[in-house]
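Bumping with the actual sequence this time:
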Amino acid sequence: MLAGQTLVASDGYEVALFPMPFMYITQGEMMPDTSWSHYNVYNMDFQGWSTQGRIYTAPLYAPFTMEVVALWDYNGSHTVTWESTYKVHFADGSLDYMTIEFTHCVNPPYHTIGDRVNQGELCYYTGTYGNG
């Protein structure tokens, strides 16, 4: 998605969008090798991408209207946990509340519990900081 982009279905519920313009996966989920930090877990790492290559501090935009429900900093992870304010349409067609976590930002935007951002607004930056 791009800054300011929104998508609302005909029933009035937002459609959850991928929070970046490109999907550049640097580490997938359920890695089979125990030396990877994502061994046996459902986590994925993404970075920004442009014509000049990898962007380490790419902006992330709210994939749906959401609120901060948790903040934590495990080994310098700078993690913000968000939950959709309303039900959203998932890629598989289901309609439910969604929770998403952003981790590893070098200079994370300052948030507090209860902060709310609307779909398409800047909410975080990618990074390589700490261990999530």
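The tokens above came from a reply further down the thread. The longest strand covers residues 66-72.
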